[in-house]
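User: Show me a protein chain along with its predicted structure.
Assistant: Here is one chain, sequence first, then structure tokens.
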Amino acid sequence: MHVPEEIRAEAAALIDHHALGLWKPNDADRRAAVALYRFLETGLPLTGEQIRSALAHTEPSAGLHERLLKLLQETAGLLDDAPVADSSAGRDAVDHVCLLLDALALSAHPGQ
């Protein structure tokens, strides 16, 4: 799924599943999203290293939804490939992943 169009499609599908209530993010999903949302709040572009760091430090892999984990890992790989990440399709894919992270982070329980 390292192709930007595939990443975008998967992010859009997860956004839809979340919005329709077909997918209920668990605490691990929300912790990872909140950690990445904090990076996004800085206003700096998201990097592959930030994603890997959030995944490692929030210890979500034990309970992280498999599709979300794969999407984040693939997005990190995309961001590591600067020419692809800077392309129109790459930016669109990352924008969709960021929208998903926003939705998950904002759905977090108070106090997280």
